[in-house]
Amino acid sequence: MLISGMSNNYTIPVSNVSRVTPVNADNTVDSSSRVSQAGECQTCKNRKYQDGSNENNVSYKTPGVIRPEESYSKVSAHEREHVANAIAKSSKPGAELVSASVSLKMGVCPECGRVYVAGGVTNTQIKYSEQSPYDKNRKAYEKEALTGGNFDATA
């Protein structure tokens, strides 16, 4: 099943990842940058990612470090796990996947200026044709509570 926006057309080659050089107020290069000779700042080295969803079968349920140059591929793969779970749920009888979308959030490291994927959000909608008993009771209660709510006494 092809999900809109999930093609490989968005792959960013690692060699094209932007890097910003810090500058002073007079537009000269800031030589006091805290980036080490190896090119890795402490902020990027210690940045952790953790999944905040209620799905237990996805990666990053415990905090994990992702390097900035790997952030696109790893966060994208993680969000695809959520889409795969939605597809699996919608393959059951009485369920239909209405939509699935993934949004990646970009960030810029305040220390070294490196651009990285800061996180992602997956939104899915699954339509169930059969209602649970709880939904049926809730709808019956709402019908009873709302009946007569738009009474027009002037007519």
Nutshell version of this structure?
With 155 residues, the chain is α+β, with helices and mostly antiparallel strands. Helix content is 25%, strand content 21%.
What does this structure look like?
The chain has helices spanning 42-46, 71-90, 133-146; strands spanning 48-49, 64-65, 95-108, 115-128. It has a domain at 41-146. By secondary structure, the chain is α+β, with helices and mostly antiparallel strands. It contains three helices and four strands, in the order H-E-E-H-E-E-H.
Question: How is the topology of this model organized?
Answer:
Elements: H1 42-46, E1 48-49, E2 64-65, H2 71-90, E3 95-108, E4 115-128, H3 133-146
Antiparallel strand pairs: 1-2, 3-4
Number of helices: 3
Biggest sheet details: 2 strands, antiparallel
Radius of gyration: 24 Å
Summarize model confidence as the mean pLDDT.
77
Could you say which overall geometry the principal axes of the C-alpha atoms support? elongated
Percent range for β-strand residues: 15-25%
* Poorly predicted ranges: 1-21
Give me the count of strands. Answer: 4
Structural class: alpha+beta
Spatial order of the strands forming the largest sheet: 1-2
Helix content: 25-40%
Distance between the termini: 54 Å
- The secondary-structure element order is HEEHEEH
Characteristics of this structure?
155 residues; two-stranded antiparallel ribbon; disordered N terminus
